[in-house]
Amino acid sequence: MDQHFSKDNCKPTSFFNNVPLIDLSKPDSKNLIVKACEEFGFFKVINHSVPTEFITKLSEAIKFFSSPLSEKEKAGPPDPFGYGNKQIGCNGDSGWVEHILVSTNSEFNYYKFASILGVNPENIRAAVNDYVSAVKKMACEILEMLAEGLKIHPRNVFSKLLMDEKSDSVFRLNHYPPCTEIQQFNDNNLIGFGEHTDPQIISVLRSNNTSGLQILLKNGHWISVPPDPNSFFVNVGDSLQVMTNGKFKSVKHRVLANSMKSRLSMIYFGGPPLSEKIAPLASLMEGEDSLYKEFTWFEYKKSAYKTRLADNRLILFEKI
Ligand code: GA4
User: Is 14 in contact with 123 (CB distance < 8 Å)?
Assistant: First the structure.
């Protein structure tokens, strides 16, 4: 049996209809964002300003994924950037997923993708840049609302890390092909992308209308998030957990494959510059001690890349 057909003792659940909903057009949303980050580390965003055309354009990536595997593999292996098939990271994790990972601040080789699709690389670069810039702007708005909700100054304490030209952010396209054999395996649970937390500050996900995303609640239950192609889903990353001295929790999440439909998701991972010190903000400590040892984003990332997907990566940086 393939490694990614992993047995799971949690039965698939029905949809969770209480995902916190943040309406970005409402001024009182800042308190709701804080509450959602404390309770779930996860929320859904509506009335955002990301133009639909940017989303539609990038959704054409499905054409790349429909190319023959031998062609797609010319844009791999992921090192970590590039095309990857079933492989996640480089420490033996795998899933029923293929992906493209792109760095948002360095010159990326779009030629490989363009030659497979027979299109101009500039068009792909422009599509990724337009989408990422708009989503990053929204992520910064959310982070500023968070700072206001937490009553910390200046309001750009978090967002400046993403705005920095050296911000170490990445963009990922995940394609989960349908798997007709799911019924044969383990209670219908085929892992598309195994459980993990994101190391960065904040992640913003948009998917097509196929279900699969699940988040782990504090009570230990996995709940399925109803898909919504018109909204974004935001989760707290490990670095934001540290900056808030554990007040916000980076949420564990995973994706289950679907037997009928293919799922396409696009995720922006907002990270700080490599040299940035990640530590709890003094204004959030209220006389508390820091729960974490000091580290830079470079150190954390280096350590994260040595871990397995499901590992608790922050444990190495916790004060005993
Ligand atoms: C999880 C979040 C992002 O997808 C990612 C992933 C990265 C990768 O696929 O290269 C990692 C994973 C992620 C965390 C631990 C390490 C690194 C795979 C892995 C086993 C791009 C990221 O930044 O961290």
Answer: no
Pocket of ligand 1 (CB under 6 A): 80, 88-89, 91, 93, 101, 170, 172, 196, 198-199, 269, 304-305, 307-309
Q: Does residue 83 contact residue 160 with C-beta atoms inside 8 Å? A: no
Closest Cα to atom 19 of ligand 1: 89
Cα gap 143→160, rounded to integer Å: 9
Q: How many residues does the chain have?
A: 320
Ligand 1 centroid – CA 200 distance (Å): 10
C-alpha 44 to ligand 1 mean position (Å): 22
N- to C-terminal Cα separation, the chain: 40
- State how far the Cα of 48 lies from the Cα of 134, in Å rounded to an integer: 10
DSSP class of 22: E
Spans of the chain, pLDDT less than 70: 1-13, 182-188
pLDDT of residue 86: 95
Residues with catalytic annotation? 263
Rounded distance, CA 5 to CA 199, Å? 25
- The structure's pTM equals 0.94
Kindly report, residue by residue over 134-186, the tens digit of the pLDDT. 999 999 999 999 999 999 999 999 999 999 999 999 999 999 999 877 665 55
pLDDT at 32: 97
**Is the confidence metric ipTM above 0.95 for this complex?**
yes
Taking the CA of residue 198 as reference, the ligand 1 atom at the shortest distance is 2
